[in-house]
Amino acid sequence: MMTTPASTTTIDLVQRFPGSVSADTRPGYSGFIVEKDKLVEVATAIRDEFGFDLLTAVTGVDYLPENKMEVVYHAYKTTGGPGLCFKVQVPREDPVEVPSLIHIYPGVDLQEREAWDLLGIKFTGHPDLRRILMWEGFEGHPLRKDWKEAFYEEDAKPFKSRWPDGKFYMAEDNTPLKDNLNFPQNFDPEKWIPEDDQMLYQSLKRYTVKNEEGLETDRIVVNMGPQHPSTHGVFRAAITLDGETIVGLKPVVGYLHRNHDKIGERNTFLQNMPFTDRLDYFNSMSNNFGYAIAVEKLMNIPVAERADYIRVIMAELSRIQNHLVFIGMLLNDLGAMYTPALYAFEERELILDIFEAVSGARMMCNYLRFGGVVRDIPEDVMQKIKDMVFERLPAKTDEMDRLLSENEVLVSRLKGVKVLDAETAIKYSVTGPVLRAAGVPYDLRRADPYSVYDRFDFDVAVRQNGDMYDNYAIRLDEIRQSLRILEQAVKGIPQGPINSQKPQYQVRVPAGEAYGRIESPKGELAFYVVSNGKPNPWRYHVRPASFVNITALEEMCIGTKIADFVALLGMLDIVMGELDR
Amino acid sequence: MYGKGILKGLGVTWKRFWNTYIDDIAWLIRGKKRYYTEEGVKHRSSKNTRGIFTVQYPEERLILPEEARYLPFLVYDEGENGKKEVRCTSCGICAKVCPPQCIWIVRSNDPNTGRPIPEPTEFFIDADICMNCGFCAEYCPFDAIIMDHDFEIASYSRNVYNMEKLLKPASYYRSIRPENYARNEAERKAKEEAKAAKAAGAQKATAA
Amino acid sequence: MDNEKLSLPQYDIPEDIQNAVAITTLDRLYNWGRRSSVWPLMFGLACCAIEMIAAQASRYDMARFGMEVMRPTPRQADMMLVSGTVTKKMAPAIVRLYNQMPEPKYVVAMGACASGGGPFKEGYNVVAGIDKFIPVDVYIPGCPPTPQALIAGLIKLQEKIDKESIRKVRWYRKGPDTMEIPLPILGPDLIDPRRNAEIKMAAAETKEGA
Ligand code: SF4
Ligand code: SF4
Ligand code: SF4
Question: Ligand 2 atom 3: the closest Cα is on which residue?
Fold first, then answer.
């Protein structure tokens, strides 16, 4: 396997900060442990002296038995190469406090809020530390190991009640309220005063303005979503407007928070595989890929060579249909209702036919297993893939190009409308096509090659202006590059077994941590998995591209017209399943 | 020239529009039916499809690939005089591997011997939880639980399937998944032969 | 619906005008009108919504059922297709949308999540089925139901509409013609105002720290 370790010994943080940084020596772990008080200083050095400009992931781990909370940071360089993992450990006594890194890496904004929401880690210095996935007023921090929901059965699956004495019952039957509800002691619903988003509106900058005479004026606040046809799901944005210009914006998410992490920590390692399908539901193959890589790293097993090729083929097909649908949906948002979308969906259906034939399902493929894939590609499906890759898809990509790229109306609508420039994009940890459209050639398939991507000859699609048109065009470029990869992969796919392991439903995973990441069509998708040697992960965290990318949404939108908001949001290509998990 | 790009784009839609009729005529000349036939649907799902792409469900149906999966069902072999020989041995692997834990199996013991009876007494799948992942079918050692192709199962109430509802004959299994069925049968035969050979070998050994 | 299905067979229609007239009952005519123009609310929740979009896209044809006009506003919609996981945070919005829909209205729970919680049922932010709040007419199992399965479910809804009778339907009866459902409130957990007393009792019994 070609993945690089999460950190290297070439960077000697310990020497640079003697006494306040120590190497993480727990078996299976790597990186550095930083003293809490020195965190800001060390992080500044990591960014400025060592050049790790992209902080991709921040998350917390609750080590209940050791009575510790740990915050884990993963930093990378946009020039490529291995990353650096550093951690802060604090005792697990309330309040758990860690200094916020928001002034060094603004991209941590939403991720720190998530850690606060789900784990109750207070990031001191964070200007807007509100709950993000749950609502204000929710009781408890659900990802803590001692927090239990109403339908809680056991710490780990499989549940003993299912077999051999599996008398059927609904989960509801076992709870006092006959529903998925838990209330604190002596709670009186009639006396409850809901928070009503007051904190949200207060956090909107320049909500009230004072003019010279001291007259206070409220700006208009517009809530878009959670039910809105163009927000790509249940996304909500609270926007302050001055006339038609956006002066403040806060994304409000969590309307599709399905407790992926919590459920994932109860599942066995294998059982998480189909759950990852439901993250970015356009690209279940890519999600499987990322998760498989993370766990394979942890298990330290090789991947069968043929399976690696199959994975690449599936991931790239997935990318193509994602980008096609992106273009179709973008045009929908811009008002060119349906025609491009219908054309895109045609190719998507044909690609989904391939997925269905190999994996059994159109969308929720559940196709990868640790060490390989679940079944080989049948001969006739291989032929179909070849037909698509060599004949149909190139022609249809060109057709899409012809249909749209020179259309004057579209061009004048998109050209020159700024999305993000390179510096801001990196600052806000934006990854994926949006970053590349701003001129940063950062593609994990090249920057930190995983699987067999280093064997293929392709270019990292990159555009320079970072405006809407470039963001649109880069998707077409990427489709073309994906087709190049696919051509080589389909030609070069070796014969052989499709899994290096025996089919087994209980895998042995040694204790340790792993951060597996891939270039998903939306950006960097990563899984941070901590195992303690048991059949279930101790911590299972998804670092989704969509979620981190919307950190930059406010920066992107301020100063633009409200009419552009939908298009700008469309450019980020968010998908709620992944954003909210 | 301003408007060239628009015209170019319109050319694409224009071509797409006519393709439907061109293909219609082409099929007509060849004397084949383009609509409401399996051949027509197959063509519309192939790389050569152009023009109209719609499959007019429910009159036409997509051809499901063998591996397609929806909800699982339990297989029984048809024994003599219609006796249902349930393949499931209530080993519990499917219930253990099921990610959302939506399988419930009651295994009972023989009141006389106290040994477990292989056939499950009750078998439930909560179809409102099942995520159609296919793990149960993948890891069942007896090919007793198989992913179904039937998707027309909408109902007016919640769906909790009991054993009666889940059981389907092996002939149905063969009809939806011929290749898998053949492979399973071959494996089973090989296993049985190996067993028989072993038993014969053992007999010989004792005789000798 | 064609003439044969619409007209009642028990009346003899003279041969020469058979193709020109159809005799039917008001119920049939009414149901036929209803079932042939069910406008869904344009509203998607999760993964299932993508299959719903696919069902509206190139390969499938919902227009044949009169369901292709997706309305982004609930006030013009007849059917709510709950396509995906209902979370507690989203539940108030869904109930509000439902309340805003004019009668007659139908609810289809698409997929395991909307029907009964689905794979994420055990999660702390997941409502175990939208029928906890609003009445559901048709449940479509599957995760996700394929577009064909969705259309099969919608045909099932049409069958249900066919069985309605003007004399019995709720929205022609006396009394308030819509069913206003109290909005759930986001408290320490999701509060259903209809169950306030129960919640109070249960909360009194919970032990400290449980
Ligand atoms: S794994 Fe197969 S044999 Fe075992 S209980 Fe499940 S269905 Fe029955
Ligand atoms: S398909 Fe998956 S979720 Fe459904 S019963 Fe089988 S193992 Fe469980
Ligand atoms: S039923 Fe399955 S596909 Fe549908 S929303 Fe739920 S998890 Fe997603």
Answer: B130
- Give, in order, the Cα–Cα distances in Å from A406 to each of A471, A472, B4: 15, 12, 8
CB A536 within 8 A of CB A483: no
* Architecture category of domain A260-580 in CATH: Orthogonal Bundle (1.10)
Note whether residue B197 is domain-resident. Answer: no
> Of A38, A41, A91, whose CA–CA distance to A64 is shortest?
A91
CA distance readout (Å), A149 to A139, A155, A184, C127: 11, 11, 12, 12
Spatial distance between the Cα atoms of A261 and C171, rounded to a whole number of angstroms: 44
Same domain? For B76 and B125 the reply is: yes
In angstroms, the first-to-last Cα distance of chain B is: 98
Does B12 reside within a domain? yes
**Closest CA of chain A from B127, distance in Å:** 12
Tell me if chain B has a CB within 8 Å of the CB of C164. Answer: no
Helices (H) and strands (E) in chain B, counts: 7, 7
Q: Are A57 and A515 in contact (CB under 8 A)?
A: yes
Residues paired with residue B161 on neighbouring β-strands, in sequence order:
B125
B77 shares its domain with B177: yes
Give the separation between CA A152 and CA B17, rounded to whole angstroms.
Answer: 56
If you measure CA to CA, which chain C residue comes closest to A576? C46
User: A75 is written with which tokens?
Assistant: 């930093």
- The reply to whether B166 falls in a domain is yes
Contact residues, B window 125-154, toward C, CB-based 8 Å cutoff: 126-132, 151-154
From the CB of residue B109, how many other CB atoms can be counted at a distance below 10 Å? Answer: 12
Q: Which of A366, A388, A406 sits opposite B4 (nearest CB)?
A: A406
Range of the structural domain that residue B18 is part of: 1-63
The single residue listed with the structure tokens 């929710």 is A138
Owner of token pair 């096609």: A324
CATH number at residue B99: 3.30.70.3270
Q: Identify whether residues B58 and B77 lie together within a single domain.
A: no
CA-nearest residue for atom 2, ligand 2, is B133
Number of independent structural domains in chain B: 2
* Sign (positive or negative) of CA dihedral B48, B52, B58, B60: negative
- Note whether B142 and B75 are same-domain residues: yes
B53 and B103 in a single domain? The answer is: no
Is B17 touching C (CB cutoff 8 A)?
Answer: no
The answer to whether A163 and B88 have CB atoms below 8 angstroms apart is: no
Ligand closest to the CA atom of residue B119: 1
Assess whether B48 and B90 both reside in one domain: no
B108 with B10, same domain: the answer is no
Residue B194 lies in a domain: no
Rounded to whole angstroms, the Cα distance separating A364 from C46 reads 13
- The CATH class of A6-124 is alpha beta
Per-domain residue ranges of chain A: 6-124, 260-580
Ligand 2 centroid, distance to A506 Cα (angstroms): 16
Is the same domain home to B56 and B141? no
CB contact under 8 A, C93 and A134: no
How confident is the prediction along chain A (581 residues), in pLDDT tens digits per residue? 344 444 444 667 788 888 888 888 888 888 888 888 888 888 888 888 888 888 888 999 988 888 888 999 999 888 888 888 888 988 888 788 888 888 888 888 889 999 998 888 888 888 888 888 888 888 888 888 888 888 888 888 888 888 888 788 887 777 777 788 888 877 887 787 777 777 777 777 666 677 777 777 777 888 887 887 777 778 888 888 888 888 888 888 888 898 888 898 988 999 999 999 888 888 889 999 999 999 998 888 889 889 999 999 999 999 999 999 999 988 888 888 788 888 999 999 999 999 999 988 888 889 998 888 988 898 889 999 998 899 889 998 998 888 888 888 888 888 888 888 888 888 898 998 999 988 888 888 888 888 888 888 888 888 888 888 999 999 999 999 999 999 999 998 898 888 888 888 888 888 889 998 999 999 899 999 999 888 899 999 999 998 999 888 888 888 888 888 888 888 888 888 888 88
